[in-house]
Amino acid sequence: MNAPVGLDLASISERVQSEVQRAIQRSIKGVEYISSSGPSLGSTPKDILAVRGTMNLYHYRPMADEIYRVPILIVMATTNRGYILDLVPGQSFIEFLLKRGYDVYMLDWTAPKPEEKSLRMEDYVLDFIPDCVRRVQQDSGEHDVTVIGYCFGGVLSLLYGSIFNDGPMKNLICFTTPIDFREMKLFSNFSDRRYFDVDRLVDSVGNVPPEMILSSFEMLRPASRAASQVQLWENIWNDEYVKAYRMMDRWGTDTLPLAGEYFRDITKNLMWDNKLYSDTMSVGGRAADISKIKVPILHAVAEHDHIVPYDAAKHLITKVGSTDKEEVMLKGGHVSLVAGANAIKRLWPKLDSWLGKRST
Amino acid sequence: MADKGNDPAVIWQTMIGEMEKGFNSFANQAMTSPEFSKVMNQVGGATAGAQRQLGELMEKYLLAMNLPSRAQMVGMAERIQAIEGQLNEIKALLQQVHHNSLAPESGYGAPRPPRTKRPPSEGEQK
Fold this sequence. Notes:
The structure holds two protein chains of two kinds. Chain A has 14 helices and ten strands. By secondary structure, chain A is of the alpha/beta class. Chain A is globular. Chain B folds into two domains: about 60 residues; about 30 residues. Chains A and B meet through helix 1, strand 1, helix 5, helix 6 and helix 8 of A and helix 1, helix 2 and helix 3 of B.
């Protein structure tokens, strides 16, 4: 008797065997998963140069015998921890930069304390970033600094660059940075001014709790958390998959609260009035028009970014005043653009080839 | 090899992927409506208010039980952070004092590499 078309009995037997083995592995690894902690993240050697409330400035120890003249200051998004850029050896953007001969500093954030609820946009743009730039200058002995901003860190870097447009920022690199907030359609609807009383929220909670920030991110893809857990169970026999899952899951859920007044500023000026896009933004009474930015700029956007859709990010390059400017769209999502296997192959080499010649 | 189209594991994974996409897309559509925003913010506003009241109540309860409140724990964490900061400063100072006898990889205060690197020529880039 012949087997039905498309079915091969030998391969079915192999398949069953392999599935049984995986089922056994799942049980063993499942227990291991529950009883162990994930990989240690953010372990590239670094020194803390400054800690001031929510602001933390690190300097990573050089890994090359010779480094580029211009140091890099990475400005992290205020909602998330900077270790996404320093996962584990071999998958760390920071380590990649150090090995390629860059001198790397990072402005990272910790949770603002209850008494920091009064921090406003101007504290970030006119105080924290300029303070870190000054410290980088002092520590490196160089006047010029390259600024790299990730997501909302990119927005803060743009605001800084538009106000301090006569230096010392030499190059600007933005990753997935929104400027047209109307195009972040779901966030825009969540914060619809007719129904979202930001004053009441901030006045009642002080700092906006991380659970609220996390749930608003998760609502953008409500089925994805459940689906990722099913996929984890499917692949729990695969150590590499589990390691990658744990790194991303830990980072994704390690969301920071936002200082209340800062959140109020973002909601009113950016989400409601879209002032960055309409060139009417000001910070602490100082006009922040991004057409004033003249330095070389690279903007990396992700093809499948569900947090900052391309429509929200695409006007950045046309609006800045630089003549040396480039937008690069790469495959991947909001996070996989900068971290993980996708980033190692795509973004990091692109950034190195763009920045190397502008760092001397 | 079995045809991938007949492989139950592949069928299952594809089905999960499609269900995820379908549900996300359906939910995203629903969430763009003003009605959704209205309901979400009504519920969110009520929750924030309730959370605040609960927080105040817990504070009183912890005080009555002679237990530290969240604010006190945050205060303690701040003090520990401040001590850590001072330790880091002392460490940096010690390393600066001894930097001549420290190996280059020993960290802060160690001699830095020269800032003379040039980008590789186009052909050298990997």
